[in-house]
């Protein structure tokens, strides 16, 4: 009897780089951890995951080394990005999507030719929809606030290294997929982030539904697209008859 077919997967990835934006900066490590739909209809982590160092083709600035502690001599003999990216990003035909925490960062380096134009799930954007009461939405704060079932504390360390960060993100993704649908996570990921609370100014820390109309108007021209999108969404809610005041968590799922 032939072995059962391997399941389709969503591949969670994390990159460590020399800086914030290509082409001035480049990848120096990629890590991955897969999540798959089980026979019982529940999503779970799948396989061991992995990581590989990448030669960025330039020195790693000290300010960046201080974050991930990857040294120039450690990547000197590593393969270049174009030699490892497709294999790591595109386990075709099993991969149905890619995922990352704040996926817009990874998407700068993981371009459509390297990913076969994959769809992306941004677990940062989805966390704000599903768990708006979290004190913060960073990968690590979510880890310690939620305490995902089954996570191996040591395997998720050190932070700011590609595999441990992908491993932690995979637990968030697993739980998101078991609370919502893949289609819904993809939809949320395609639009700017919906921020549960005001980030700055006199109303800092308040929920958007709590601030006055005059304050809300000031955010409509903000340079940050997430702030603008959130303000526009809240304004539309009020225009449709919604009142100023705390909204319940289920309301966020309907936006």
UniProtKB/TrEMBL annotation:
Pfam families: RNase_T
Entry keywords, A to Z: Exonuclease, Hydrolase, Nuclease
UniProt cross-references to InterPro entries, sorted A to Z: Ribonucl_H, RNaseH-like_sf, RNaseH_sf
One Gene Ontology molecular-function label: exonuclease activity
Record keyword Oxidoreductase present: no
Gene3D superfamilies xref list: Ribonuclease H-like superfamily/Ribonuclease H
Regions that span the bilayer: none
Family matches, as SMART domains: EXOIII
Domain Exonuclease stretches: 9-182
PANTHER family reported in the protein's UniProt record: DNA POLYMERASE III SUBUNIT EPSILON (PTHR30231), EXODEOXYRIBONUCLEASE 10 (PTHR30231:SF37)
Name assigned to this protein: Exonuclease domain-containing protein
Organism: Sphingomonas qomolangmaensis
């Amino acid at each position: 009897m032939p072995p059962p077919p391997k399941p389709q997967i969503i591949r969670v990835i994390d990159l460590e780089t020399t800086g914030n934006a290509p082409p001035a900066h480049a990848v120096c490590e990629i890590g991955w951890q897969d999540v798959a739909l089980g026979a019982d209809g529940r999503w779970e982590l799948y396989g061991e995951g992995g990581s590989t160092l990448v030669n960025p083709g330039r020195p790693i600035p000290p300010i960046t080394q201080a974050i991930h502690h990857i040294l120039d001599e450690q990547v000197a003999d590593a393969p270049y990005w174009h030699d490892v990216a497709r294999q790591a990003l595109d386990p075709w035909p099993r991969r149905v999507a890619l995922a990352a925490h704040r996926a817009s960062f990874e998407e700068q380096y993981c371009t459509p030719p390297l990913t076969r134009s994959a769809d992306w799930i941004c677990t940062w954007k989805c966390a704000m929809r599903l768990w708006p009461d979290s004190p913060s939405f960073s990968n690590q704060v979510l880890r310690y606030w939620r305490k995902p079932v089954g996570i191996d504390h040591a395997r998720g360390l050190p932070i700011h290294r590609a595999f441990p960060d992908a491993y932690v993100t995979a637990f968030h993704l697993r739980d998101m997929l078991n609370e919502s649908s893949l289609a819904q996570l993809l939809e949320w990921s395609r639009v700017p982030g919906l921020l549960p609370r005001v980030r700055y100014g006199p109303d800092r820390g308040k929920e958007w539904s709590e601030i006055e109309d005059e304050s809300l108007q000031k955010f409509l021209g903000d340079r940050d697209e997430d702030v603008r999108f959130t303000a526009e969404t809240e304004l539309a809610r009020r225009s449709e008859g919604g009142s100023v005041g705390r909204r319940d968590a289920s309301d966020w799922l309907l936006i």
